[in-house]
Amino acid sequence: MPNIKPISDLSNYNEVLRDINVGEPVFLTMNGRGRYVVVDIKDYERMTAELKLMRELAKGEYSAKESGWEDLLSVETELGINE
User: Fold this and answer.
1) For 26-64, what is each residue's pLDDT tens digit?
2) Tens-place pLDDT, residues 2-19
3) pTM for the predicted model, two decimal places
């Protein structure tokens, strides 16, 4: 069940912070609508790393579609790991 609190609960931020667990964000509402999310720093770092990885993979896929794919042997040769 999502942890949802009104933003006015931030006046007692210790209680809000106490309710934050890894993998379980706290959703803050303003005027009954979702406004902010408070997450554990490890979750935030993981999410940003995943987004960065997905962007880089998308760039690689786009490049491959535009320029063509490289075969494994040519990649290994270029990296100097081909025996």
Assistant:
1) 899 999 899 999 888 888 999 999 999 999 999 999 998
2) 888 888 888 887 877 777
3) 0.63
- Topology of 3-39 in CATH? YefM-like fold (3.40.1620)
| Six token digits for residue 32 | 């009954």
Q: In what order do the strands lie in the sheet with 3-6?
A: 3-6, 26-30, 33-38
Cα 48 to chain centroid distance, Å, stands at 4
Where along the chain do its domains lie? 3-39, 42-79
Q: How open is the CA angle 10-11-15, to the nearest 5 degrees?
A: 60
Question: What distance in Å separates the CA atoms of residue 58 and residue 53, rounded to the nearest whole number?
Answer: 9
